[in-house]
Amino acid sequence: MTDWPEIEVPEAPDSPRRPVVDMMHGTEVSDPYRHLEDVDNPQVRQWIEEQNARTDEVFNSLKVNERLNEKYLDMLSSREVDTPRFIGNRLFFTEKRPGDEQPVLRILKDGETRTILDPNEKDEDGLISLDWWYPSPDGKLVAFGYSQGGDEQSTLYVLDVENKKIKRDKISRTPRCSLAWLKDSSGFYYTRLPEKGSVPAQEEHYHRHVFYHQLGTDPKEDPKIFGEGRCMWETTAVSLSDDGEYLMVCANRAVTDTEVFIKKIDEDDEFTKIIERDKDARFFGPIIDETAHLMTNYGANNWRMVAVDLNCPEEDNWSEVISERDDVVWSDVKVIGDKLLAVGHTDAVDRMFLYEKGGEEIAEIDLPFGGTISSVSPDKEAGGAYFSLQSFFRPPGIYWLDFEKRSVEPIMQSDEVADPDEFCIRQIFYRSPVDGIAVPMFIMHRSDIDPRQIRPTVLLGYGGYSKPMTPSYTPTAIPWLRSGGIYALANIRGGSEYGESWHREGIRDKRQEAYYDFFAAMQYLIDKGYTDEKHLGVTGRSNGGLLTAAVITQRPDLFKAAACGVPLTDMLRYHRFLIASTWMPEYGNAEEDPEAFEWLYEYSPYHNVEDGTRYPAMYIYAAYDDMRVHPLHACKMAARLQTATASDEPILLHIQSDAGHGIGKPTSQFAEEQACIWSFFFWKLRLRLDDEC
Fold first, then answer.
1. Number of H helices, E strands in the chain
2. What is the pLDDT averaged over residues 404-415?
3. How confident is the model at residue 452, as a pLDDT?
4. 655 near 635, Cβ under 8 Å?
5. pTM, 2 dp
6. Secondary structure of the chain: what % helix, strand, coil (to 5)?
7. SS3 for 426?
């Protein structure tokens, strides 16, 4: 810790109040900044530009910002490989090479590696990104989605792998596409949104239905296969059986329930429903030999795999393939010949197991290090599988698991920007004040320091959507740690660190319990001597941005600074914008449900800002082209806090152009974003950046 020179922060732009009062279930609710919802209005744009200019002036005066940006550009420009998929005797994978703004798609075949898709060639600023990609069964074609400026509004193209030519097939409106190729690679089933103008404007982000496309035909003539007349905010995932005869559609209305439908692709029969929504559970998995091997949390908090005979799919006929375990939360199981490869996590760290197809455990696989496993892709003929593995300070690498030897060998490695042994990662468990349950937290610091000496500390949280916060590569924390700071991650409820119950104990009317978990993490760090209220910062993005905004309104006394990214803040109107209606099962709907209004109004950050309160420093950042969380939330929250706070701490706002929720962000843009976040913490938590870091 050290003294920082005083930074002169300009006055915030004037934010005139134009109150709108709604009567909601007998309660008058004032919304003084509703006019800021219209970010396309010239007056609102001018206000945002003034906010941006003020924030830029502050960061430009922080010399640490420029130095961090240089360090991050260097770190993030290192080679990084990820996402292996073995298809058609080829290993497909993504690679971000030094100097690339965006990852490229490459293949490894017969010992030769070559690039087949390079979005960097499409735009020198790196604003075109590869959103998703699906190789055909023979590996000779790839259907992929390009989007621009991080908006995730993909356009589908088809690439001929051998000559790297893009075929004439072009389909717009395919964000977050699910796609299944026919066995002979002549066409595919896929999901897309309706054409603009074909549905009311407010519904253009919904109605994501399943279509079929035959290569070489006009996509406008593609027949709709599934979705007509169903709930407009339902999402669908498609897959084909291993023999190519059955199409499966998993229809989800939340992260808590699924309906599953099947049909033979060469017959005109209607879909047969094999899983009912009333089970209030998730299902996904492949069809093999007329049997659906489905991962599910139905009757299993920690998940299991069941086999469902397509000819008699009634629950009484199900058989259990892999049972629920008390010590592992299963996330995926791959059926590979006569073996099963199962991945799950224990205390938020991934593990891998090999099973016989009948469900008998063979062995747990020894991994090179504890972290996060993803992109498991089998090679049945070779008797093994490729997968990606990463941790906080270990970049993702591609590994090969040999079933017979039960050994794991690295195939391709990313460049390490630091020696992982420089840092100590300890996992502790603290008690929630709600019910005394143990909540895990990772605490990271430089290996050669005593962490319990009141150090500047940044705490990250998320807690939502059944997403476990397992160790993921975080190179941007390295300068902070090398300079003597502490970085922590609290695994609060709302995720799935301990199965579906952990998720449901942090959503809807119980979301406040997730916030209590986070407050307890903050208090633990203070009580155990890691930091104090003057040197503690909190951060989070998206649902984690909502968490951060809730923390600043509920416990402004407990910390010094917050970085709040692409947040939700107005929880009474959030569902009206973009794709947010799909989140109502997670949060509730205040307009239609009186009970939901009660719990949402109680914690909605925007509605709980109080005039005259001494709020901590806050940096709120969002993007114009975010197609998930509308930037109105950041605007309204910043305006409310700037006019309400009684402290001298700044409330800074920045709305970025040519950027979205975060997916597809160019390397230089991401480096700049991270430099602002971390320089804000260096400044407000009084840590001096080590020049040698």
1. 10, 39
2. 96
3. 81
4. yes
5. 0.96
6. 25, 35, 40
7. strand
Q: What is the pLDDT of residues 37-61, one digit of tens each?
A: 999 999 999 999 999 999 999 999 9
536-541 and 561-565 as β-strands: parallel, antiparallel, unpaired? parallel
- Better pLDDT: 395 or 268: 395
The residue assigned the tokens 């975080």 is 474
- Phi then psi dihedrals of residue 645, to 5 deg: -65, 145
Closest to 620 measured CA to CA, from 673, 686, 555, 685: 673
Q: Are strands 329-336 and 319-322 parallel, antiparallel or unpaired?
A: unpaired
537 and 521 in contact (C-beta within 8 Å)? no
Asked if 263 and 270 touch (Cβ cutoff 8 Å), the reply is: yes
Query: Helix, strand, or coil here: 278?
Result: helix
Query: Do 175 and 153 contact (CB within 8 A), yes or no?
Result: yes
User: Can you give the length of the chain in residues?
Assistant: 693
CB atoms within 10 A of CB 222: 17
Give yes or no for a contact between 363 and 402, defined as CB atoms under 8 angstroms apart: no
Residue that the structure tokens 């005139």 belong to: 16
Q: Do the Cβ atoms of 383 and 400 come closer than 8 Å?
A: no
* Distance of alpha carbon 134 from alpha carbon 650, whole angstroms: 46
CA–CA distances in Å: residue 441 to residues 182, 389, 453, 470, 518 = 45, 20, 19, 11, 10
- Residues 270-282 have pLDDT tens digits of 999 999 988 999 9
- Secondary structure of residue 514 in the 3-state scheme: helix
- For tokens 């992109």, the residue is 375
CA–CA dist 486, 426 (Å, integer): 11
CB atoms within 10 A of CB 60: 10
Both tokens of 371, joined, read 């972290």
- pLDDT grade for 3, boundaries at 50, 70 and 90: low
Listing from the earlier edge strand, what are the strands of the sheet with 349-356? 329-336, 339-346, 349-356, 361-364
Spatial contact of 165 and 182, defined as CB atoms under 8 Å apart: no
CB of 290 closer than 8 Å to CB of 337: no
C-alpha distances out from residue 451 to 106, 429, 444, 457, 528, Å: 42, 17, 9, 10, 10
